[in-house]
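Second attempt. The first submission of Amine oxidase had a stray character pasted in from the spreadsheet, which I only caught after the job came back as garbage. Lesson logged: always re-copy from the clean sequence file. Corrected sequence (472 aa) follows.
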Amino acid sequence: MSTASVIIIGAGISGISAAKVLVENGVEDVLILEATDRIGGRIHKQNFGDVPVELGAGWIAGVGGKESNPVWELASRFNLRTCFSDYTNARFNIYDRSGKIFPTGIASDSYKKAVDSAILKLKSLEAQCSGQVAEEAPSSPKTPIELAIDFILHDFEMAEVEPISTYVDFGEREFLVADERGYECLLYKMAEEFLVTSHGNILDNRLKLNQVVREVQQSRNGVVVKTEDGSVYEANYVIVSASIGVLQSDLLSFQPLLPRWKTEAIQKCDVMVYTKIFLKFPQCFWPCGPGQEFFIYAHEQRGYFTFWQHMENAYPGSNILVVTLTNEQSKRVEAQSDQETMKEAMSVLRDMFGATIPYATDILVPRWWNNRFQRGSYSNYPMISDNQLLQNIKAPVGRIFFTGEHTSEKFSGYVHGGYLAGIDTSKSLLEEMKQSLLLQPLLAFTESLTLTHQKPNNSQIYTNVKFISGTS
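This time the job returned cleanly.
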């Protein structure tokens, strides 16, 4: 059995930032248990077509405002290469199934109609929640262009309907990570500041990879963690940084069971599945001028290979296209072969650019939903939700603390949300540890009296409390 003061389950950005804060505050005997063979979690780089591509988080969102985004600060500090992304032009690059681009006026009117409809729907939901008479709900999008814009608006640009803290606090600009070291290099650079490393490799035995935690047993004396390979670890406290999708699955069990208020809150939180499919071509056949990084495909089925991006801005000459699917479309594609997905994608591209375009030479399909260590891409709280829901998800249960982007009150779903959540959770745990240390002398004192069958009088207790508080 290995022992530590704190065990951290998961080495994503929340787990790494949490561990860093603990070590910097004197809790050096932390132990990080990671289920996979790497750190990073849902930040994961893979080489494809001779360039690194980000399978998970790929942007630093919220840049250029009065307040500085902490992840942007990390990126600047470690010279992470990024490219500015302008989504606003995407709505004017909408192709129909015959390969024609919708006129700017039609696209603009359709977009305004979609925004107005979304705002009306939001007000209707707010009215229902407050018990007021709601306005008549807007009609659902029906035509291909309406469905395409609805997809863009609700899956990418909700800031135009509802103020989102990321853009309000940090700014409205977004930067695509295009660095050979990958987005994950930020985590490795953070880890180097408190773990033993050599030539970019982490050698510190406080990080244990390929340790799949299956059970967390809690008692008044501490926490015991058991892994899939039979390893057993013991600590005073545990920080669980597993994703909300994992918490909803049966991968991780707790003994005793988590209280009902906790499990109900976890199950109520939605999980967003976000799949970026990468396609490599022998040559570029799509427009690559200014304002043409993103383009849209309007189909009768919402979200069917709708949102496209070329990688020429990030990696000139790479000849790579990326199409983003979400939720049910993501799950559908994950369940089929890559060859079937390639065939569907090529059919869409030939609708837009003609039957003579070359066939893709390679395809990369991430599977975040079927990955038992992730079970989705990020948390997705309802537009109208009770703040108590998030508070219950975030709240510790005895010696078990919870962190991750899903515990961030303002920035859930974002990398900076996960980063800040790890810091906040560690600060809360440090406060708990401090209070526990203050109480230990009093508990030892009263226990000794119990063992000797003495009943403490008020004077004895008062003197001991004065000693603990530092006044005597």
